């Protein structure tokens, strides 16, 4: 018997996600696509994201959870910001 989980494909219909369920018990701020932020990834590339959901730890550290749906591909990010201007 093994405890390994194996997934061939995972599909999540992002348009049907309900933020009140996804973030149940966690305060969040929904950011519209008019909010644009950039960061440099591990390959030293500048990445720009729009919108998403901001969550904040008790110490003030902010993370943004966002996704981009393009035809059949879905990109999902969680970025923890070193410094965040509000």
TrEMBL record:
This is FBA_2 domain-containing protein. It comes from the Eukaryota.
């Amino acid at each position: 018997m093994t405890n390994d989980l194996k997934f061939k494909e995972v599909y999540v219909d992002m348009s049907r996600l309900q933020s009140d369920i996804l973030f149940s018990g966690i305060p969040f701020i929904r950011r519209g696509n008019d909010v644009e932020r950039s960061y440099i990834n591990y390959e030293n590339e500048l990445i720009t994201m729009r919108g998403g959901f901001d969550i904040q730890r008790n110490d003030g550290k902010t993370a943004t959870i966002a996704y981009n749906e393009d035809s059949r591909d879905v990109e999902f990010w969680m970025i923890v910001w070193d410094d965040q201007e509000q």
